[in-house]
Amino acid sequence: MEPLKLIFLLAGAVTLLSALMVVTTRKLVHAALWLVLTLAGVSVLFVLLNAAFLAIVQVVIYIGAIAILIIFAVMLTRGSMDDTGPQTNRRWWLAGLIAVGLFAGILLLVVSEPAASAGVPAEAPGDSLRQLGLALVSVDGYVLPFELASVLLLAALIGAIFVARPPDAASEGGEE
After folding, report:
1. What is d(CA 161, CA 158) in angstroms, rounded to the nearest whole number?
2. Helices 28-48, 3-24: inter-axial angle, 10-degree rounding
3. Structure confidence by residue, pLDDT tens digits, 127-168
4. Residue 111 burial by CB count (10 A; 0-12/13-18/19+): exposed, middle or buried?
5. DSSP H helical segments within 25-142, as ranges?
6. Can you tell me the distance from the alpha carbon of 45 to that of 51, in angstroms, rounded to the nearest whole number?
7. Quick one: residue 136, left, alpha or beta (phi over 0 = left, psi -120 to 50 = alpha)?
8. Nearest C-alpha neighbor of 148 from the set 156, 48, 65
9. Considering the entire predicted model, what is its pTM?
10. Interatomic CA distance for residues 12 and 68, integer angstroms
11. pLDDT tens profile 94-128
């Protein structure tokens, strides 16, 4: 096996395992540290794909700023982030069903998209950053996955707002 393939497989395995630890660990500080490892693994994958700009952005913005901000937020709100109850509610199966349906839909779109099966060209001639920008907004390029990612981020934002909202007075006081 070639050394680059071995490094790719190792980085992919570390990224997947650390991402799994992010969502399964019970302590928020540990989850934030696993997130840093996950983001570092993704930056290694970017380097292996000859996407140096994305690797630098990954390290500077996601590891250097966002992950550290998350760690500070967790450390500063330690008192309010104590585990006070179960991690699931009665409708967890509905959320799981929706997540599986969304994953299946995205997988179907990616498989049916001809650009996804074409793969990445071996060597990008000229200004690769300019080509990346054009590919992200081109109808023949990656505009569909780019827009899917934006919809996914919007759904995550709405979910975060729903989770962070204060509890209803009716559910707290027992009024109906």
Report:
1. 5
2. 160
3. 777 877 788 788 888 888 888 888 888 888 787 777 777 777
4. exposed
5. 28-48, 52-57, 68-76, 92-112, 114-118, 128-137
6. 9
7. alpha
8. 156
9. 0.54
10. 23
11. 988 999 999 999 888 878 877 666 665 555 555 77
Q: Which residue carries 């993704």 as its tokens?
A: 42
Q: 85 is written with which tokens?
A: 């109850």
- Nearest CA-CA partner of 47 in 39, 56, 35: 56
Note whether 11 and 48 are within 8 A (CB). Answer: yes
What number of residues does the chain have?
Answer: 176
Mapping DSSP to helix (H, G, I), strand (E, B) and coil, where does residue 123 land? coil
Token reading at 19 = 């991402």
The token pair that represents 149 in the structure block = 């990612």
